[in-house]
Structure formats: structure tokens, C-alpha cells
Write a structure and sequence with these properties.
With 129 residues, this protein is mostly helical. It is built from 6 helices and no strands.
């Protein structure tokens, strides 16, 4: 019989899995689809942003390259996939539900927030929950 504390049953890996699942579940409630490549990239970006208490890292020049390296793709591919996932979710969600899950201002003309605004605001929102 193993020692649960020694074996890390409640350790860092488990905490990371729980945080990842929580972010994924909240995105799904907003209408994001897990099958989209951008879904995973958004989860990764939000988890990175949640770990910062001060000024967040720059999304385009710091977070995209980090995610691209992890997934063996380009930072342009990361940006494009995230943009497509955000566009699809905002296009398909009814306004009341959208306002509940994303209570921030966004450009109504383009029908969604910018990638950076969404990622930073969503990370803040998740951190508050």
C-alpha cells in the first residue's frame, strides 16, 4: 500500500489537470468546440495567463511562440486557430448566454473581441471563480 502524500495523489500534476478541465468546461459552456485546434491553444494560453499576478505576458510575442513550440506549429497558426475558435463561439452563442459567460465589451462590428482581449479577460474571469 502506497503513501498517498508521498505518491503525490494531491500533487501538482493533479492540480494542473483539474485547472485544465475547469478551463475546458467553461469554454464549452460558451460554445467553444473541443474538436477545434484553437480550443487547445486557448486553454494553454488561459492557463499561462492565470499564472501571472502582475502585468501579463504579451500574447502575440510571448504566448503564441510558446504554444507554437509546444504543439510543433507556427505562431501564425496558433493565432489563426484561436481567432477561428473565438469567431465560431461568438457567432453561435445567443446574446444573453454570451453576456453571462463573457461580460466584457467587444467590437460588435467584427462580432467578437480580439484574441488578446478575449484571452486576457477570460483568464481574469476564470481566476475570479
Amino acid at each position: 500500500r502506497g503513501d498517498l502524500a508521498r505518491d503525490g495523489y494531491f500533487g501538482r500534476e493533479r492540480d494542473e489537470d483539474i485547472r485544465r478541465r475547469y478551463v475546458e468546461d467553461e469554454l464549452k459552456k460558451m460554445g467553444f468546440k473541443e474538436k477545434q485546434i484553437g480550443f487547445t491553444y486557448i486553454v494553454d494560453a488561459v492557463l499561462i495567463l492565470m499564472d501571472y499576478s502582475g502585468t501579463p505576458p504579451r500574447v502575440t510575442s510571448e504566448i503564441y511562440p510558446l504554444i507554437a513550440k509546444e504543439h510543433n506549429t507556427s505562431k501564425e497558426g496558433v493565432e489563426h486557430s484561436i481567432r477561428n475558435a473565438i469567431e465560431a463561439a461568438f457567432r453561435n452563442m445567443n446574446p444573453a448566454q454570451l453576456n453571462y459567460y463573457y461580460p466584457y465589451q467587444y467590437d460588435k462590428k467584427i462580432g467578437r473581441p480580439t484574441n488578446s482581449d478575449f484571452l486576457i479577460n477570460f483568464a481574469k474571469l476564470i481566476r475570479l471563480c
